[in-house]
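I am still getting used to backbone structure tokens and would like to learn alongside you. Please make up or recall a protein chain and show it to me in full. Would you write everything just below, so we can both look at the same thing?
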Amino acid sequence: MENKKIQAAIEAILFAKGESVPVKDLVTALECEEEQVKDAIDNLKTNYAKSDRGIQIVELENAIQLRTKEEFYDALIKVTNVPKKQTLTDAALETLSIVAYKQPVTRLDVEKIRGVNCDSSLNKLLEYGLIQEVGRLDAPGKPILFGTTEQFLRSFGVKSIDDLPEMSPDILEDFKAQAEKEIQIKLDI
């Protein structure tokens, strides 16, 4: 199959599906080589990257999705009547960062790191689709393990959790010092 036909088929599949599609599923559906599909995806991404286009292709782990460019979000809201994206509280952002960097992680693990109850933050993150249950820990009580979702990747503009920024040693040392101070304050009380 020629590249233009593969591009058209990918475009049709992504449009109809409305969510991410694993590259391996496209290879199977189109009955062609993975390299041909990847070349077609690259060509589509280049074409959509032009400033006069309202859509783009985003990569999420080993999947791709067709979505609206962010600069057209306000116009899209007016047509779809969807409320604007919710903002996350500092507590929810802290909880989300712990889940993202330590996943899979239990509620208790998150609470040990944060030092406070995080039920509310975890429930909000689940509601927003940024985290999900990814299994159960093989321990007494079988606690739920949490991990990030494709929605998390989309929201933060990364292809995979491997693309999350690394924490610099200076910031890590500051966090450790701050945690030690907080522990000392709690011990003095």
